[in-house]
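Q: What would this chain look like folded?
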Amino acid sequence: MGPAYDEKVKMFFNEHLHEDEEIRYVLDGEGFFDVRGVQDEWVRIRLEKGDLIVLPAGIYHRFTTDINNYIKAMRLFKDEPKWTPLNRAPDLEKNPARKEYVSREDEAHSA
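A: My prediction, written as structure tokens:
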């Protein structure tokens, strides 16, 4: 499919977060979102045509296609679109979206 496609796939597979929710609706094909669990382990979520996923702002995640190497998905936004992925790095723990996500998760798991 070419170098541009390969680079895009690599970009999505880099662990990152967004400062807003990532809402995806799968129109066709299949793929996987990997998200970080409570113990920082990877949790794999399989998506196929008709699936909708909402990843909260601040959650580390990555994406890859299945063996068919094809997915068509639409990204939906609540507010003004923001597309910027922030790749995981130690200083990102100070990011307001990340701090809020961690705080909510800590509360949920200490209750």
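The chain has a mean pLDDT of 90.
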